[in-house]
Amino acid sequence: MADKLRAQQQLEALQARYVGTGHADTTRFEWTSNIQRDSYASYVGHPPLLSYMAIGMGECREKVRAQMVEMIQPVGKPPEVRD
Amino acid sequence: MATTSSMFMYSLTVQPPTAITQAILGQFAGTKEQQIVTASGSRLTLHRPDPSQGKIVTALSHDVFGIIRAIAAFRLAGSNKDYIIITSDSGRITIVEFVPAQNKFNRLHLETFGKSGVRRVIPGQYLAVDPKGRACLISSVEKNKLVYVLNRNAQAELTISSPLEAHKPQTLVFALVALDVGYANPVFAALEVDYGDSDQDPTGQAYEEIEKSLVYYELDLGLNHVVRKWTDTVDRTATILFQVPGGTDGPSGVLVCGEDNITYRHSNQEAFRVAIPRRRGATEDPQRKRTIVAGVMHKLKGAAGAFFFLLQSEDGDLFKVTIEMVEDDDGQPTGEVKRLKIKYFDTVPIATSLCILKSGFLFVASEFGNHQFYQFEKLGDDDEEIEFISDNFPVDPKEPYTPVYFHPRPAENLSLVESIDSMNPLMDCKVANLTEEDAPQIYSICGTGARSTFRTLKHGLDVSEIVESELPGVPSAVWTTKLTRNDTFDAYIILSFSNGTLVLSIGETVEEVTDTGFLSTASTLAVQQLGEDGLIQVHPKGIRHIRADRRVNEWSAPQHRSIVAATTNERQVAVALSSGEIVYFEMDSDGSLAEYDEKREMSGTVTCLSLGEVPEGRVRSQFLAVGCDDSTVRILSLDPDSTLENKSVQALTSPPSSLSIMAMADSSSGGSTLYLHIGLYSGVYLRTVLDEVTGELSDTRTRFLGPKPAKLFRVSVQGQTAVLALSSRPWLGYSDPVTKGFMLTPLNYPGLEWGWNFSSEQCTEGMVGIQGQNLRIFSIEKLTDNLLQESIPLTYTPRHFVKHPEHPYFYTIESDNNILSPATKTKLLEDPAVVNGDATVLPAEEFGYPRGRGHWASCISVLDPVTEKCVLQKIDLEDNEAAVSIATVSFASQDDEVFLVIGTGKDMVVSPRTSTAGFIHVYRFHENGKEIEFIHKTKVEEPPMALLGFQGRLLAGVGKDLRIYDLGMRQLLRKAQAEVVPNLIVGLQTQGSRIVVSDVQQSIFMIVYKFQENKLIPFVDDTVARWTSCTTMVDYETVAGGDKFGNLWLLRCPPKASEEADEEGAGQHLVHERSYLQGAPHRLNLMAHFFPQDIPMAIQKTNLVAGGRDCLLWAGLQGTLGILIPFVGREDVDFFQTLEQHLRSEDAPLAGRDHLIYRSYYVPVKGIIDGDLCERYTLLPTDKKQMIAGELDRSVREIERKISDIRTRSAY
């Protein structure tokens, strides 16, 4: 039992530390949001990728960057909670 | 790393990326002089602006083998030297200093804080340093923030604390700056959004109510912790912050810039807000709001409170923003802000960073295109621009206000002094030899919008011509000489003709002189200024020694013999007679030439001789090099004890045509080394090290210059001794100013027959040469750039280009999104209601095109890069169509006539990808391709992203479909079709009936076309999703390509699958073959994989140097040009692999990234050795070199030779 508790605690610590670490009850919404946010952060963080997208969109890099960081609801509204 | 791979490549960078991610300014050398440090790709580069010449010189470029995310400069209080903080993908914070004495970066601290890689919650995206250098904050896009305290210890060394956390989960950071608070506790300001509630609220109300806040983080130095000190809501659209000077200089606080507004905010001040002026013009949408995308704050010297901001909008317009403060009774500014003022300053290209130098220059690191270096003419203080003040604008962003407008105008305040070539973004690249030179040229299309260019790259140094004049006859040789030893400049130019000699004096004008004492009736072999004030002329019949008082001493050659070769220096003369004897002279103490008693007889006819310069403090050069027609070079001693004795001999592949002994800077010994340069009749150039004591020759390096015999001359360029090597074209051998390695680069100049050093008042370091009947005087200004660029301006962002199959013309397709097409523009300009008498059209290169959402402007250009160097024809596309693909296709049904085929899309939206239709246009070539004529267009469902000529027909990728079209009278006729990829076809390659199709997301597919059945059948695909950007077929089975995440890979079809696909009549069998795991029946094998960091946009199998081996050249978006050289033998692979391993540990990357993991960023590196790392060997300190050499069981020189050989054999 102690082992199980410890594993649970470790998982929780991991989840707190690394955003996006999943758990048994991860919903589709959480999972896809995380992937989208990770993607956007990666586009912003890799300079050539940001340039590539800026050229494609016909905008300047800073505007595209600001758009990408705006990853508040990357996959739309959260689903209704059903009890 | 899988060492079992059967294929190995050596990756080298030919041109490092030219895009600048960030540029910072500081006094990195610890002197008053300011330098600019830029981060481009994985490189950290230090530039030295030269205010007197208005130029920027690159002093040092260091590859950190990691992705540089942000850099910042800081200075500890009381120090006068700036350090650099780097955040990279290493998960570590790095502090480096520039050591000017050694010209290198030295790492001071490396602190690990998190995982490596560029991730959402790993700090490093944002970096801010307290202006007093006491602390820095690094932040990730979401949640994490770390504060490091910077201090100094008792030894005045920089110390860094362990990090203090300031995390806040579910918070996004848009911008981060440090506040200027003087010596109070350091404060950092962040622009944040908390999305926690919106993620929980299914109604979407929380999302609607999300606010953006400005948050102050205070580092309490006493308590050593960080607190969120203050937070306030700001404009929802704000994206960028700027620091406002504080302490004694100003009110402190920040400028928060959002859509159409700039707001001053501080915790103890009122908010002040001004709108961003919009452009007024007939083609401008008056409703379009601008945002600030870049900016810089500058404090003026002297007056307290004198500072201003230059903020740039997305159109490139710079606005000068100033803050007016409340004045006290004495008229001194208090710390209280009264209003914010903004006015139009000038327009410059959109920047990633702006740097204002104290010397009155502005460096603009452009996000795309050339970087610009401007000089301030004035600061826009008393001009006629309207100044807008914050009194007229409400503080609340939701309240209405009247927008403000300005008229853009040509620059008044800034004048451009230098435009620094940048190929960023490089959209496509091809290697071709259109000029029929020895080596091919690289053609590329670069840039965006109106600043787009077509660039021709050639390996060579830029030469500036000073004089070109025709002579009465064809001279065979030319020399220059000064009159006395202490002269600085040359006095005479001596020209030798087949039957005479002409002496010209150098002065205001160059004119013939006759009373010089030179023999004018014979040709000349050598000229030298001897001793204090003597002159020497060697002619076939003897040696004339002309003394200062015009007395002439003549030494005559023995009867029936003539002089065939001669060499001189300021104290010695050696001549070779037609009989093969060598006569040696040395200058006496009284200044006369004394013949050495014995003559030395050589085995064959002497073809060339060389004496080195007399070393400083010596009386003679110790060695004489003698080249004979039996293909040998001998080194003879000139020591008084052993005069003309043999020291060493070297056998050659062909008789030597020219020799030159000279001391040059050397990277392996660190100092200067004596070299013997040998030019052969076969056009080969050799460079060997000549041992200064024993006269032994060692470490020979060979290079083929051209088909003509090589002639060598000692010249002086940029203060260093260099060798001018002449063959079919001129080359210069010099040591690179940055790396100190030996470089041999062709000059961009016609082939010369003879060259000599030239120095006069007008041109202190020049060269004089003979080309046919012309005398040419020229100089070389820059040794740092060995790739010459020529550019032709284009209209819009170029997307792709093709070459005419036979003639030297290129066809580019250009298109720009959100830009008004010329037709719309004209319509607007013609409409009197809109124009309102205001129809000035400003040059688009500086001001950009008028923008409009959803509009496309696109054109096709015909380019002549060789003779006329301009756009010959331009065809604008109409109806909101934009070109996406281009190909030249020869149609079998039209007697193999070649047509230009262009794919377009109508009303395209980039994301999510939609369009109303696609078209394939067909154009006919006229006048050998100088002109194109529209024939017809065919409507297709989607824009065809890939086109290719295939077996006399057209192959088109339309969406997921691969189609074969034939040319009809009215339109294209579909002949075959198959759905072959899961997403979208973006590229096509072919050999035989095999087609390589690249999918936008799912790597490549190999398709076989069965002519009998008229079927397109995929037979092999890949296991990894690769977002393919470019591909090329290396051979029938192998494909090399790159993807959008910056990987390079080589894939090979299994031999069995390849054979099966090509079997006669196997069509039915292939169609019914069972698919493997829902894909094609077979899978491709990965042969090699590498992460070069930049996104490959083009890849091509080619050779780059005359007589060089084939290699793969790839071109990256940021302007990188790289090559992959295949290894031939296993032995070399083992050697370089071990060397790479040693360098990884001995020269660990500066920013703390593990080299192997960096090159394995997405997929483990396979079969590729990093040449850029191997080349760092030459930069190591000698002891480390020795150590590695010991481990490898080779000498240092041997290793350096191997490293330089592999590069020179295939590239520059």
From TrEMBL, chain A:
One of its GO terms (cellular component) is U2 snRNP. GO terms for biological process: mRNA splicing, via spliceosome. InterPro entries: SF3b5/RDS3-10, Splicing_factor_3B_subunit_5. Pfam families: SF3b10. It comes from the Eukaryota. Belongs to the SF3B5 family. This is Splicing factor subunit. It comes from Hyaloscypha bicolor E.
Automatic annotation (TrEMBL), chain B:
Pfam families: Beta-prop_RSE1_1st, Beta-prop_RSE1_2nd, CPSF_A. Residues 19-420 form the RSE1/DDB1/CPSF1 first beta-propeller domain. One of its GO terms (biological process) is RNA splicing. GO terms for cellular component: spliceosomal complex. GO terms for molecular function: nucleic acid binding. It is found in: Nucleus. InterPro entries: Beta-prop_RSE1/DDB1/CPSF1_1st, Beta-prop_RSE1/DDB1/CPSF1_2nd, RSE1/DDB1/CFT1, RSE1/DDB1/CPSF1_C, WD40/YVTN_repeat-like_dom_sf, WD40_repeat_dom_sf. Keywords: mRNA processing, mRNA splicing, Nucleus, Spliceosome. Its main location: nucleus. Residues 857-1178 form the RSE1/DDB1/CPSF1 C-terminal domain. Residues 464-780 form the RSE1/DDB1/CPSF1 second beta-propeller domain. PANTHER family: DNA REPAIR/RNA PROCESSING CPSF FAMILY (PTHR10644). Belongs to the RSE1 family. Involved in pre-mRNA splicing and cell cycle control. Associated with the spliceosome. This is Pre-mRNA-splicing factor RSE1. It comes from Hyaloscypha bicolor E.
